[in-house]
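Support case: user asked for a sample of complex input and structure output to validate their parser. Sending the pair below.
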Amino acid sequence: MVAAPQSPATAKLEVRDLAINYGTKQAVSDISLTIRENEIFGIIGPANAGKTSFLKAINRMEDFDTNMSVAGQILFDGVDTRQVRNVYGLRRRIGVVFPLPVGLPMTVYDNVALAPRLAGVRNKAELNVIVERCLHRAALWDEVKDRLNALGSLLSGGQQQRLTIARALSQEPDLLMLDEFSIAIDPVTTMRIEDVLKELRQEMTIILVTNLVQQARRIADRTAFFLEGSCVEIAPTEDLFTGEVSDQRTRDYVEGRFG
Amino acid sequence: MFASSELNQRNRNRERVFRVLFGTMTALLVLPVIIILVTLVVKGGPVISVEFLFGNPTNGMTAGGIFPALLGTVWLVLVALLASVPLGVAAAIYLSEYAADNWFTRAINLAIINLAGVPSIVHALFGLGAFVVFFGLGTSILAASLTLAIMTLPVVIVATREALQAVPQSFREACWNMGATRWQTIHRVVLPNAITGVLTGVILEVSRTAGETAPIMFTGAAFFLPFLPQSVFDQTMALSLHLFVVSTQVPGMPEQLPFGVALVLIGIVLIMNSLSIALRMYLRGKKKW
């Protein structure tokens, strides 16, 4: 379905001249960047910087929002996502975790088994393996292994968010996008998930949108600073914090002078 | 320490006034229902007997039972449900889950709401023209039920649409993000969580269908039939029309009889509804988010 990666062999995602509009309101303009395979790519920036819109465009969520229009190119493994016919196949390869946890009103087991089932897995033993593995990786297994038949929507907020992550992993994505995943969960759980993400990097590319500058510092390999719909700067994460930045606004934001 | 200021005092007084006001309004609403039910039970209750429920009318309908009408009403409601629930639910799913939110969809929604306001006698004439004459169904249970179905479609559509839209959008997005198609999302996540609302629509429809008289008068309900309908292509008696007939059209009617018929009509509606109410309660117990 997808051709071999083009020029830089490590480019997972290439964004060229991306512009996103909601009606007449411009949310993102002129973003071009490359996200490499198996890196954790952090995106920081204040509210209304276009971070979430950027993620939505990658996943082609504009198909569900008639108000949202996307111009420019996003190449996923070298293939222009706007031209992909099988958008469902594309989305299956991209796991998404949104700020607020969404435990679907079905059992914990069914939550995690949903994506494999949608993809046609029927074999009970196979599903069991997937469910257990994904819950393990999302650091949730020990807490729910005895109540896999409890409703996912009745778990605590932090548990639901890990359930959401487990669900995203159950798609076996090669790109995982997390949008401020730690907003509704406690610091301890956040740290555990961050550890999980560092491990997952071996197998997939991760885009981490975060409001917490320090979170990007802890785990992102490279970080982009978005401001008012444009990408101000992309640099190896440590450089942003040691002052090796080319734009004063980046330094101000990172050091907490605004935003 | 907690001495109340003048403002506190005023707020508390106001609180009391509104509580009493709204409570009174509710009581006023419930009152007619209670009066109706008590009257029916007191006056109609003594008429009810096995013979009344399962016998044929005799002596120009002034004696005997009402079984043909009772069975006819059950027939009419069931066939109407079979026609309108699939149609209405499908339309509601389309409007809520597939159709883009543009002027055309809004126009359709408006039309559906207006359809609910069309007087039943107009539906009756439409049913006569369309089903009885044009489609050649004749005056039959089928024609009458289809007329009732058309009339109650807006109820089913609106109730279903409301139920679908009460399902949080985040559930759908979570599902789409996994690569689910719209249909997969609907049947795995949206519908299971909206089913109680759909059943509410069905309950409303049963109540309305069983009680309507005008739409079935021209399309399939008979004044008096001494036999039971054998298929949906037969005419039938119906409780609602029978109630009208015994109340106004037959001289020398025992005073208690119409009350008995009305009581049975309400009982039938309650029995049919209790089925879906029980199902709804069961499903609601399982739904939580």
